[in-house]
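Below: protein 1.
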Amino acid sequence: MRCVILLVVSGAIASGAHAGLVGSYTVGTGSNSSHLQFDFGNSNTYLYDVRYEGALHGNALLAIVAAAQPGFFSYQVQSYSFGEFLTGVTIGSDTDSGEGTPPDYLDYWHYWTMESGAASWTESFIGFADRTVSNGSWDGWVFNSAGAPAAVPAPGAIALIACAGLVRRRAR
């Protein structure tokens, strides 16, 4: 019970106006799990642990999140002959959209991937509609920066850290 209260309190603190990890959510059902990370232009980061069965592409992960959080999570895609392009994402009160306008051409959602067990992010050279995700894989989206996604704990790790600290404190 104390872990639940601690998580609610830490979630309320994290959802404040400061930048960093704002929210971590688990959505979907199934034995497979892939992660989505969104780094907004204001430095706010959101993590999703997406559960599913069978083989999926990266665009299906976004659809699962949108179906699980209507009114909180939405995204816009532009279709071209070469594939789909993510043009906008809204999570809660954070929203960013763009297509790479001059002069710096950075105002768009940059797509990064990391396979299970990999040590670092790789900028994707295939589109998210063509990328087959696998159990434990990560898809990262960064707006208005060519840099890799921020280093943050995996979804669920925050809960484990908070509960471990509580248990350690009770053992004293």
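Below: protein 2.
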Amino acid sequence: MNNRKILPFYMSYPLPIAFEDDREMVKDLEYLQQMYPLGAKKLLAEINKALSIMDYEGSMIYDQYPDRFGLYKMGKDILENLRINPNMGKNDEQLAKLLEWDGIEDLILVILFAEILKRRHQNNDGYLKF
């Protein structure tokens, strides 16, 4: 007797469903980023500027396992650029207070990692690309 189970066609090739989930995740993340406090939104803008430089084919942000030290260095560089830029802190009181906070580096890293995750799934240039 033949006990093989036959799978429907859509169960055999689940990749389009998986990519649909990625698009939904990106939409959710973008919606939640719109609710960031004003200071975090300004940090996000600066992080996006730095990531646009790193957004090319073969970049470390698209590696399957990105280099931890490289990402931490990128976060520190973003923070230094914000602190060195004389126009940022003087014109924006909220951002100036945020830059004086002890946990600012951790906040920048969290926003940076979330933005990298969004770019990896938005462009399908990461390890999911075939």
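The chain has seven helices and no strands.
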